[in-house]
Amino acid sequence: MKFSSLFTLVVALLAGLQGMSQGCVAIRGFTSCSPSSFTNANLIGKGWQLSTNYRYFESFRHFRGTHEEEDRLTDKTEVINYTTQFSLGLTYNFDRRKGLSVVLPFSYFVRSSLYEHGRTERHTSRASGLGDVRVSYNYWLWNPDSLTKGNLMVSAGVKLPTGNYNARDYFYNVGPDTLGEYRPVDQSIQPGDGGLGFSLELQGYVKLTRQLFLYGNAFYLFNPMEMNGTRTYRETLNAILINESIMSVTDQYMARLGFNWNVAGSAWNIFAGGRIEGIPVEDLIGGSLGFRRPGYVMSVEPGIDWMRGRHDLNISVPIAVERNRLQSVTDKENSEITGNYRHGDAAFADWLLNITYTVRLGTGDVH
């Protein structure tokens, strides 16, 4: 297999990791914005690689479980999140098999709602800035020079609490005098989560024919901290929500599987597959109390990739096919307290625009 073909295939693998977080289920972008962690630089040799990633989506469809609450749109009570994210990634590859990556995510959020502003007027809240920085070490299990029909990369990383997890804005028609006051914005638009996390990631591919490849990705973020101390003010909406008054620091996950087809004699690749990404009801390590909106999104993900020389451009549009807002730990606790079943909702997007540009710095050892 030529390294130019492997170049585009591995970049296509990478593209699927961009653009998590499609709504009020706060799947933070940094988990998927490692635009230089697993590109062909690892297979080309020692040197630097720079990547940028842009994502945009609007979440507005409310789900409770897998049931869409269409009346929220009819009644115009839906919550709308406008999310714009830009990530900058830098990888240094020690050789063809191993490298170290640093990713800096930046976000700009706008959230429009009624219920956060006294349920009488629709207003917006905003948050922006640097998110939680991620550093990871990446290693191909087999030597790319000797294994040409497939390989698997393992990555272990740390997520640093660099993002603001207590970003505030002005909320109208609330507070002691009911005129308004500054409060923390919703969990889904906080740039950071306040916890020190640890990540494990797998990426692999198998060559099926000369032009067709099978690819797969899996990612899990462990967030041992239980709560970050940021107040939600949900107890002011209903006294029984006292156990949702502080934001939870949640685990996250993603898995992806699909096919990549290299257009013979050209710089183009076409790929398509399925993906699932979400927040679990309970963390694998540490407690799970506080407010969270657990759930997942299952999507189909078509995309194209163009590569020439040191440059690569990748565009994909994951399209949601199933959205599920799961019952949280605090939902279950409130169900027991009140004797009435409680199941919170969340807003999800229909689709996500994801654009990644990658460039190898310097000349490198190109095959």
What does this entry look like structurally?
Residues about 1-5, about 5-10, about 15-20 and about 30-40 have low confidence and may be disordered. The chain has four helices and 20 strands. Strands 1-3-4-6-7-10-11-14-15-16-17-20 form a twelve-stranded antiparallel beta barrel. It has a two-stranded antiparallel ribbon with strand order 8-9. The chain has helices at about 5-15, 40-45, 70-75, 330-340, and strands spanning about 45-65, 65-70, 80-95, 100-115, 125-130, 135-140, 150-160, 170, 180-185, 195-205, 210-220, 225-230, 245-250, 250-260, 270-280, 295-310, 310-315, 320-325, 345-350, 355-360. The longest helix has 13 residues, at about 5-15. The chain is mainly β and about 375 residues long. A hairpin with a 4-residue loop joins strand 10 (about 195-205) and strand 11.
